[in-house]
Amino acid sequence: MRRLKIRVLILVILFSLASALDGVCEEANSNLIKELKLIEEKMSNITTLSTQFIEEKNLALFDQKLLIKGSLYLQKPSSFAWHISSPLKQRIILRGNVVVQWDEDTNQVQKIDLTSNPSFNVITDQMKRWVSGSYLSLVDEYKIEIMQSSPIKLKFTPFENTVVFKVIKSIMILFQKDEKYIDTIDILETSGDSTKFQFLETSLNLKLDSQVWKVKTSD
Amino acid sequence: MFLVAIVFLLSLFRLFSVPFDNNVEVMLPRDAEFSRSLRFLRESNFSDKIVLSLHLRGEGKTTADLIKAADQLKNGLRAPLVEKIEEGIVENEVLDDIKEFLAYVPQIVTEEDLSAVEKEITPKNVKERLKQGYKNMLSMNSMFMKYFIQNDPLAVKTKYLKKIRDLAEAIGYQAQFKQGHFLSMDEKNVMLILTTPVLITDSVGARKLLNYISEQIKLLPDYIDVDTICGHLHTMSNEDILKKDITKTVFAATFILLILLILVFRSIRAFLVFIIPAVAIVLSMNIASIKMGALSPFVVGLAAVIAGITVDYGIHIYLAMQAGGIHKVTKISKPILVGVLTTMGVFTSFFFSNIDGFKQFALLTNLSIIVSIFFYLFILPRLFYGGKEKKSFTKKSFLGKHHILDDRIIVFLWIIILGIFAFFSQKSTFSNDIRVYDGSSNDIFNTEERFHKTWGADNEFAMLVAQAGNLEKVLKVSEVLNAQVNKDFGNQEFASISDIYPSQATRAKNLLRWDLFWEKEHGEKLKVLLREQGADYGYSEDAFKPFFDSLHAGQEGGVKLEDPKLLDQVKRRFLQETKNGYYAIAYFPDKKVLVGKAQKISSKIAGTFIISKNSMAKSISESAYREVKKLSWIAGLLVVILTILLLKNIRLTLLALLPVVTSIFMTIGSFSLLGYSLTAPSMIAILVVVGLCIDYGIFMVYDCKFKLEAGTFLAVTLSAATTIVGGSVLLLATHPVLFYIGATIAIGIFSGYLTAAFVIPSCYRLWIAPGGYR
After folding, report:
1. For A167, which of B143, B540, B543 is closest by C-beta distance?
2. What is the ipTM of this complex?
3. Residues B260/B307, Cβ–Cβ less than 8 Å
4. Mind listing the domains of chain A with CATH numbers?
5. How many CB atoms lie within 10 A of CB B127?
6. pTM
C-alpha cells in the first residue's frame, strides 16, 4: 500500500514537472514570437535600405581569409542590389525571379532565372529574409533562439528537413545598439567554414539613387 | 408463344449482366503499327496516372497553407485505389544526391568527353577555371558552389547535372520543388501525381476511384480548388454521355414511333410491329455477348438505328396483311426476303473488317433481322388475323394514268440534284481526329486546358521507343538509337536517357577509361597546374584534394554499378518496366519533319518504334479509310450481285440501285456543304444506309413490275419514316460518334426514300414500261 502511494506520488510529481516544463516552453516560445514580431514591426517601417558591408570569408579552399567590401541596397517589396567594390567589382541586382549579374573582369552582364537555378534561389531568398528582418517566416525552417536581449542577438539553427541543413550549421544575427538595424551576421557552415558580414553606415528610408539598380557601373 | 415470352424475359434479365467494353479501341482499326502503339500505351505507366492540381485561392493564405492542404490530401489517399503518390525531391537530401551523382559521372563520361578534358588541361584553361571559381566564392551562393569547385575544378562532371535538368525540362512541367512538393512557379499550385491499379477502361473501377478522390478533396479547406486530370474521367464521362444519349434517343424514338402508329395505323394492335425489333435486339444482344464477350456501348447506342432497320419488314407485312391477309403476305415475302438478304449482305461485309466494333454491329444487326423476320413472318400474321382479309391500304398502280411530262420533270430534277451533290461530294474531307470518338464533357477539356496553362505543359511530344526483354538490353538498344540520332541530325530536340544512363556494360567501359585517363600523366599534370595557377588566387594546397581523392573511387569492373538516386525521377519518365520487359523512351516534339526523321532511324534499328499522337491519328485515319473503302467494295459487290441474282434482270437491278447511289452522293455532298468532315463512324453509317436503300429500291421495283397491291408505297414511306426517326433522334445525342451516325442516316435515308418512292416509278415508266402513259 505504501509502495503504491510512493508510485502515485512520483507520477504526480512527474506530471507536475512535465506540465511546468511545457508551460515554460510555451512561454519561451510565445516570448520568441513576440520578440520576432517586434523586430518585424520595426523592420517593416523600413522601405529602403542602404548600407556598406564588410564580408569576411574563412574558407578551407583558400589559404587566406577572403575580405569582401561593398554595399547593399534594398527597396521593398522586392528589389535588392548587392555591389562588391573589392577585391573585384561585381554587381548583383535582383528583381522578382530574375537576377542580373555583372563583374568588371568579364564586363559581361549575365541574366539568371532563379527558377532554373535552385541554389542561387535558395541563398538569395534566405539573404533577403535575413537582411529585411522577415524572421517570422523562418520559424518553420529554423530553430530560433534569443541569445541576448540588448542589443538583441538571434541564433538560427536550420531544421533537418530544410535544404540548408546540410550546409549551414547556424546563423547568428546581432543588432546595432539602437536596434534599428543589423550589426553583424555570422554564418557557420557544417564544413567548418564561416562567413561574417558587418554592416556599416546604414541609412534607412532614404531615397535611393537610380544608379544603384544599374547593373554596370559604366551605365 | 409462352416459350418465346420466357426466352424474352430471361434475355431481358440477363441483359443487366451483359458486359460492356468502354475501350475506344474497339471502334478503331487494328493494323500492326497501331496495335503496337496501343499495347505500348497500355503496358507503360502513362495511363495509370492521375494528376491532381491544387490551387490556392483567396487572400491572406500562404504557400505553407497550400502545402499543408496537399499533405492532408496525400495522407488521405491510400491503397488499394491509390498505390503510390509521386513526390518531389526531398530538399535536404538534394546535396547528398548531387554528391552521389557526381561520384557516378565517371561511369557516363564518353571517350569524346575525355578528349575534350585533355584539351582543357593547359595552364591557360586551368587559370581561367580557377579565376571563375574564385569569382564564385565572392558571390552570395559560395557556400553551395564551394563543393563543385573542390570536387570538379574543370567542370567535367557538373555539365552532366545540366543534362538531367535538360531532360526533366524537355518533357516535364514548369515546376519547382519545395518541402518535397511539385510547386508551380507562382507558388499558387501544388501537383500530386498518383498511381492507381484501376485500368483506364474499367468504368466501374474508375467511378469508384474518382468518387474516393472526390471525397478526400471535399475534406480540404474551402480556399483550395482541385483539378483532376486523368483518362479515367474520359471513360466515365463517355459512359455517362452514352447512357444519357441511349436513354434520350430510345425514348424519343419510341415516342415518335407511337405517334406514327396511332396516326397511320390507328390500331393499338400494330404496337406489336414496333415491339418485335426491341425484343429482337434484347435477344440478339444476349447472343452477341455470348459469342463476342463484352459489347461496345457505341454499338449498343445504335440500337435505335437497328430497330429502325428491322421494323421496316414488319411494316411491309402488317400493311400486306391489311391489304389482303396471308395471301398478300405470301406475295410480298419474296421482295422482303430479297431485301433481308441484301441488307444482311451489307452487314455481312462488316465481318471482313478488322474493327471489332463493326463486327459486333454486324452480328447484332443480322441477328436482330433474323429474329425480327422470324416473328414478322411466322408469328405476327397468325397472332392477329388468322388469315382473314382486312381493309386494304393498296395504292393505285404506279403504271397508267400518269403524264409522261411529270416523269420527265421528276427524272430531270433528280439528275440536277444528284449532279449538284455529286459535285460537292468531291470536295468532302475525311477527319483524322481521334477525338471524334471522345465525347467527354467540355468541363473535362476545360480543366485540362487550365492545367496545361498552369503547369506550362503545352508541347506535344512524340516518342522514339526501344523495346527489349530486360533493362540491360533495352539500354543498349537505346544507346544505339541515341548514337544514330546524334549522327543523323544532332540531338538538340531529342531527350534520351542514354547520355546519363547507359547500359552497365558501357558504364563499366567508361569507368575503366576514366581510371586509365587519370592514371596516365593527366592526373599529375592537372595537379601541378592547379597548384601553380591556384597560387595567384590564394587557393590552398589541399583545395582540390576531394577531386583527386574521388578519381579512383569508382567501383571495380564486374561489380554491379549502383544507380544514383538523383536519376530516379528521370528514370521514371524515360524507362518503363512491363511484364514483358522494358521500354526506353526518347521524347521529341511531335512535328511532322522530326517524326519522319525518327521513323527513318527506327526503321534501321530492330526493336524500336515511334509513338506519335499526330502520326497515330493519321495512321488510324488512313487505316479507317482503307477499311471503309474495302468494306464499301465488298458491300457494294454483295448488294449488286445479290440484287441481280434475286431480281434476275439487269435493268431492274439498275433501277433498284438508284436510291443507293443517290443516298451516297447526297450524304457525302451534304456533309461537305454543312462543313462536316466524314469520319469512320459516318462512313459506316453510309453502308447502313446502302443496306436500307437497296430494300426500298427492291420493294418499289417489285411493286412496279408485279403490281403487288400490298401497300408498298405506304410501307416504304413508313419504313423510311421510322428509320429517319431512328437516325434523327441520334441528332439529339451529345456524343459525336452517335451524332455523325444520326446525321448520315437521316440525310441518306431521306434522299434514298425520295428516289425510291418517286424516281424509280418514273424511271420504270419511262424506260421499262413506256406504254402505260395517258
Report:
1. B143
2. 0.83
3. no
4. 2-213 (2.50.20.10)
5. 17
6. 0.67
